[in-house]
Amino acid sequence: MSQTSVVLTQADVQEWLDRSPFIRFLGLRVTALDHAAQRITMHAPFRAEVERGPGSDQWHGGPIAAIVDTVGDYALIMSLGRGLPTVNFRVDYLRPAIGTGLTATATVRRAGKSVGVVDVDVLDDKGALVAIGRATYSTLPA
Fold first, then answer.
1. How confident is the model over 80-111, as pLDDT tens digits?
2. Domain for residue 38, yes or no?
3. What is the dihedral of CA 93, 52, 120, 9, to 10 degrees?
4. Of 25, 26, 95, 121, whose Cβ has the fewest other Cβ atoms within 10 Å?
5. Which Pfam families does this one have (predicted)?
6. 3-class state of residue 12 by DSSP
């Protein structure tokens, strides 16, 4: 990594997550953090507020996209130690996520002086891949 690095622990990252009312609403919990692999994993429980339609038990794409963006961002934050603005991100939805929590794993592909690129896999509680995402974040100092 070309910038000054810090080492945030799993507890540090969870504390940062819990500061955001929206992220707290999503219920994201850090389940694994690996600085050497530049990878972080988080879980979000299913709840009625994220349903696509009343009684469908199916996740709406918006909360899934928010999870991709958030987990991707924190893959870089855990090493840079500061919040980073999103430049762009995309999500490909591969299958419906119905009545299940979601586990998102983000892996840093590049952490450069001006941008960072992160890939995110989103799995249901049975381990099926439901979405993939790629996000770009500005790593320029504030």
1. 889 899 999 999 999 999 999 999 999 999 99
2. yes
3. -170
4. 95
5. 4HBT (PF03061)
6. helix
Question: Mean pLDDT across the stretch 70-85?
Answer: 94
Position 11, amino acid: A
Total count of domains within the chain = 1
At CA 133, angle to CA 128 and CA 139, rounded to 5? 140
Identify the domain containing residue 99 by its residue range: 10-138
Q: Is the dihedral of CA 17, 104, 35, 4 positive or negative?
A: negative
- Give how far the C-alpha of residue 132 lies from the chain's centroid of Cα atoms, to the nearest Å: 11
Residue 110 domain-assigned? Answer: yes
Q: What CATH number does the domain containing 45 carry? A: 3.10.129.10
pLDDT at 1: 43
Whole-structure pTM over 0.85, yes or no? yes
Give me the sheet containing 86-93, strands edge to edge. Answer: 29-34, 39-44, 102-111, 115-124, 129-138, 86-93
